[in-house]
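Standup, Tuesday
Yesterday: got the pipeline producing structure tokens again.
Today: sanity-check two examples.
Blockers: none.

Example 1:
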Amino acid sequence: MRYYVIAGEPSGDLHGGKLMQQIAANDPEAEFRCTGGDTMADIAGRDKLKYHYKEMSFFGFVQVALNIKTIFRQIDEVKNDIATFKPDVVILIDYPAFNLRIAKWAKSRGIKVYYYIAPKVWAWKERRVKKLRRYVDRLYTIFPFETEYFRRHGIEPHFCGNPLVDDIAQRRASMPTREALSAECSLDNRPIVALLAGSRVSEIKANLKDMVAIAERMPEYQFVVTAVPWVSREVYDTLITGTNVKYVCDRTQQVLHHSVAAIVTSGTATLETALMRIPEVVVYHVPWLYEKLKPYFLSIPYISLVNINLGREAVKELVKANLDIDTAVEELQAILPEGNKREAMLRDFDELGRLIGGEGASARFAQDIVNSLR
């Protein structure tokens, strides 16, 4: 069968590549075309990649407004590419602003539409639920709490686990020793606290300065910012040069593996950290106005996927325009070894792991996709 797969950011490319690999294992005659990244292109073939996500990375109102013609041209060209390829199914991965337009178009032309990793409509832009119900033939979710949410909105979702569990398990098998990591990344022997400051330039600039302020209060620990490779090192250097923070690029799980705790922004990083059983504090800088209007923008009381899935504040969330550094230091100290909140948090992480499910999610999702099409 023919599969057209669309992802618009690095995490979508990672999960899309694993899904495509497992689809091919279940369907030996599978043919792919895609819009995504290097991981997906390695599976489909480099000549089968229509757009790389780096060409499509427009975030925030200003960037979108300045590039609106480019965005609509890309949407039209992807539509034409799908029409030429004539797939049995279009598989959309998150990235809702782009993908929901593709879903509407594909549905109108009788092409099956599967959505893998549902948009987070339960957090914001809930109006998109109507589009999912109208244009998507099969919706796949990666969080257990989403099942009841979508059922309440007239959609029967399919939950087979979370592919992040597979990624962690795969990397765990080849983790470097602490000595090897320290030698490779020029770290010293102090206990490591990982800093996960986000994946976008705006997030990093907003959050890392608060994380550095915390690090400056605790010189007995080695604070390490886990940089993402698609953001220039200069962005990090302007914030950490001359401070008690080390820079390590593209080694997030390796650094977490050897950390005693972490300070994390919102998003998938909070879940990744918890599934690796590393106690964490969530620090997220927001504009003053957003802090005041947050209850009106968000449909849920939490921003971290740990708390959202557990339905309670298992990890402390400091979502502030002006972070109280003393409070942040106290919260971090409470989850360090011998801290009074550490053991309770680790028990919460064990519960989270049971809810999310075990290894093999990508294979289960792929098998369901292939079997449903047959």
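Example 2:
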Amino acid sequence: MIATERIAGLDTLRGLGILLVVMSHSGFGGDWMLYASIIHVPIFYLVAGYLFKDEATYGAMLSEKLRRIVVPYLFYSLLGLGVYVVGNCLLLHKPFDGGHFDVLSAERYQLPYIASLWFFESIFWCFVIFGLVRRAVADQRLVAAIVLLLGIVGWTLSRTASLPLSIDTSLSWLPLFYVGNLLRRIDVGSRLLQGKYAIAGAVTAIAGAILYVAAGCRPGYCYNVILGNVLLNVVLTMAVTLGMLALCCRVGRVPLLSFLGRNTLTIFAGHQVVGIMFVCGLKSIGVEVDGGVMPWLIVLVTIAGALAIGWIVRKVAPLLIGER
């Protein structure tokens, strides 16, 4: 079993993931982003599954996740609303459009602002649903079967009838969440988290990414609209994600990436707020935001802004970002 203290490799993996997420939001494109897209969201489900642990009661676990995930989600949603009202309505004198803040929107390609924080919702539902399954079923093989069935339901819904609050997204990636939790409980997972399979992980990640792109697999928006062969997409995503986990656990702590990894939710949410404000501000004064050095500038500004927001909130009201 892996000890419960912080594992440097997990921080590095999450740091890499959140950096790639911010870069993809900031206008980076090209073939290399297709390779990056195979992991820059799924790794968070894998790590979240590993970090899942049974509290004394289901209520205790739920309370903890409400504090750690839902409260920050509400805080950043209201912060985004404030930024929108000030920038769009007061400064630009445009009418208020409540559709931007429709929390029940199931739209996947033109997301309102609240839904752009879908990651909070999806991870929360993974903890809620997996916690229920773990407590209702004792046989681990049956747990695995139920989780896989829920994943199939999620992948089917993502193509036919998307659900609000990112419920279908959480179902789609619940199997990867389960794999992460399984690593916590088996010997091979212990060795993997200790960096024992770094070379095999690197080979798996490279080969899987090449096959992923060559086969035309693509993740749709919010990673719940899978384009191409679903089974192949999922298998390759799991393979590459596990490979990167093995590699990062061997590498251990990487100062900048580890720091980003420890502040993932703060950076993700703050980046959404600052990024929207910064890009819209540039466009309003006629600045071209595509190409050149602009994507790098947007990355730097939005990460810096996200960290500044997080630092201020930690000083004033840490509960708002899920901290005691």
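Quick observation on example 2: The mean pLDDT is 85. Residues 58-91 form the longest helix (34 residues).
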